Amino acid sequence: MAKTAEEKMNEKLEKEYYKKHKRMYRLSASDIVFSIINYAVFFIFTFSCIFPFYYIFIQTISDPSLVASGAIRFYPRGLTISNYVNILHENQIISAFVVSVARTLIGTTLMVLASGLIGYLVTQDKMWKKKLWYRFMVITMYFNAGTIPWVMNMRLLGLEGNFLAYIIPGIVSPYNIILVKTYIESIPAELEESAFIDGAGYMTVFRKIIWPLCKPILATIAIFGAVGHWNSFTDSLMLMTAPEAQKYHTLQHVLYNYLVRNQRVDTSAGGSVQTVSAAVKYTCSMVTIIPILIVYPFMQKYFQKGIMLGAVKG
């Protein structure tokens, strides 16, 4: 079927458009060099971030004698899972894992709820003495009584040997509240005003408007809180000392005790030095890292968006 004059004209225009933009976007030699350098730098940076985790992992699945001699470099040798099996046979390891998971979930949830609500309240001009309470909260970030007064205070509050010792102190986090407050201030005020005009109260506005819009920053502080709770070790070591409180030992605490029991005397240098098998140390590190590595990718997109938007205002 013969083409019409209009179709021929359209094809001619398309070819001219393609040729024009092909010349426009043709990479020069300097652009190619820049792209190569750019990709090389990012590859090196990515490799430097990933390799330490890979290095630790191959040490945990290699023959402990080869690990101790430093023979493991880039790939595992003498494959074995005995290191993980030995940790799984450790007393309290399962209960400690449950305690750490429960602490992380409950503590992070309450912290996110408190940070979201308080962050919203301190943005409201009608809040009584708003500036006073906000400054009073912020000043706690700069002053710390120290470890001994903190332990004494926890004992006086009856939290020694109590699971709530993991939860209550971390519910209010001034830093996270500041992030949420800054993020809320970036939300157009007209959204709240229209809801108030329709007869909504403060809690309704917070629940139906502010909370859904704050998901990125709430996911960001959730990551901060979850990592903090999961890696926390000092509170368990200092407050869960009684025999009846051993059921509240966290995973970090139990792994620390496991490392202590696996110490050996090294007399090769003529002295008596307490050392721990390298394979044991690597395995304990990997056990604590894996859960965070699993959770973080699912929260990364919220983390990036939230931390950037939360830093727009000072």
Produce a short descriptive summary.
This protein has helices at 5-24, 29-60, 64-69, 82-88, 93-121, 130-139, 147-156, 164-167, 174-185, 189-197, 202-213, 215-231, 234-239, 251-261, 278-309, and strands at residues 263-266, 273-276. The chain is mainly alpha-helical.
The number of strands is 2
- Mean of all residue-level pLDDT scores: 78
Shape: flat
Number of helices: 15
**CATH second-level architecture of the largest domain:** Orthogonal Bundle
At the first level of CATH, what is the class of the largest domain?
Mainly Alpha
Termini distance?
Answer: 68 Å
Order of helices and strands: HHHHHHHHHHHHHHEEH
Question: Which fold name fills CATH's third level, the topology of the largest domain?
Answer: MetI-like fold
Strand order of the largest sheet: 1-2
Strand content: under 5%
The largest β sheet comes out as:
2 strands, antiparallel
The Rg value, from CA coordinates, equals 28 Å
Helix proportion range: 55-70%
Q: Based on helices, strands and strand pairing, what is the structural class? A: mainly alpha
Query: What is the CATH superfamily classification of the largest domain?
Result: MetI-like
| Domains (count) | 2
Ranges where pLDDT stays below 50 over 5 or more residues in a row are 265-269, 310-314
Overview features:
MetI-like fold; mainly alpha; 3% strand; 314 residues; 2 domains; 15 helices; two-stranded antiparallel sheet; flat; 2 strands
